[in-house]
Design brief:
Layout (H helix, E strand, L loop, with lengths): L4 E2 L6 E7 L3 H6 L3 H9 L9 E5 L5 E8 L11 H4 L4 E4 L4 H14 L15 E3 L6 H19 L7 H15 L2 E6 L2 H4 L3 H7 L7 E7 L6 E6 L1 E5 L8 H4 L7 H16 L4 E11 L11 E3 L5 E3 L7 H13 L5 E6 L3 H7 L5 E4 L2 H14 L4 E2 L17 E2 L8 H10 L8 E5 L3 E2 L9 E2 L4 H12 L2
Parallel strand pairs: 1-6, 2-4, 2-5, 5-6, 9-11, 9-14, 10-11, 13-17, 14-18, 15-16
Antiparallel strand pairs: 3-4, 7-8, 8-11, 12-13, 15-18, 19-20
Amino acid sequence: MSLALIDPVDASLPVVPVMTDGYDAWLLTQPAPVQRWLQDIGYKAKDGQSAILSGADGGIAQVLIGVGKTITPWAFGSLPYELPARSYHLASDNPELCDAAALGWALGAYRFDRYKKADRQPAELVWPEAANRKAVEGTAEAVHLIRTLINTPAEDMGPPELAAAAEALAERFGAAFRCVVGEDLLKENFPAIHMVGRAAAKEPCLIDLTWGDESAPKVTLVGKGVCFDTGGLNIKTGGGMTMMKKDMGGSAHVLGIAHMIMAAGLPVRLRVLIPAVENNISGNAYRPMDVVPTRKGLTVEVGNTDAEGRVVLADALALASEESPAMIMDFATLTGAARVALGTELPGLFCNDDGLAADVLAGADRTGDPLWRMPLWKPYGRMIESKVADITNSTGSPYGGSITAALFLEHFVAEDIPWGHIDVMAWNLSAKPGRPEGGEAQGARAVFNAISKRFTA
């Protein structure tokens, strides 16, 4: 998928950023016909509001784009398909504006076109000279990757296809790649991943990618890779199952963040772990009230087969903890309760370390990629107690579901390791500037920014 960002061309049209707060003063500096035209069409240079100005020959002379008090990529996100499919350049040398324009343009140019040909090509933007091209490319490519992985239907994005995508990423950046598949999961002590995924025609697997200097600080990312979720024997309703191709959104996020880390060459020892399964139904599907063994040695009673994500993450988090990394961050489309609490656009951050939480939230502020910290409220731990196993994967209560899910995961992380868990929707229910309907990166830019600041001088 093209970023719609190009090298300089002979003829391109200027895109002129106009700050909302300074619009009235700016307007007074313009020729009378321009003032009259903008007044007649009600243009106010609101954030993301564009206006096309014609020249004496009747053709496009320039494009105005309003930019609000806070400069974000989204001000530019609608332009690739709002403007005629021609070449444009940014009439600014402000680095912050240049970065925002390039990133917003690239993210706005995204379309998922694997199965349906696009009805038009996006307008293209000449790379702004003051933009940090390496950083923008790394971020935009990562977001495109996250969106495409999530948007791809489960028929073409099951565990083996997800593993192939991870392997391709590893090959691009010279990372090591390993995948434990099917019955080998039992041989290598990943019983929870195997038990959840064994009912599907496509075998479950554990994806393991490593990159960077072995002596560098270890950063481990863990992503839920449930490539489709029927709910298992506690089967979902038809409506509840419709969007479950996106249940591997956590894995897409950690692969996207890995892309950014490797593209930037951060001085870390990166590891990405993805338990990839389909939660399907067959004669050997795991059942309600089964007891699942885990890599850590804890036993899990199955209160509900539709709470499978935390079960497969248990083995991956236990493996992640074994080498005592400097931090672990997991992403998962884990609970509907998080969406009830925070809506679809605001992921919840659970964290056992205040310093790590502060770093991630600061990254969210710097990038405009919002997160909201949620509590690991210890008294709710009683809700995941089991009479027949160490813990249960489902409380049976309609209350506090995102918290109890996070508390479940915490059992599989060593106490002395800074760990964060982000519960994401990974989907735009409707289109917004720069963010088309469908799979979406949420919190990925924030976490990458936090890792960059945390592990570079």
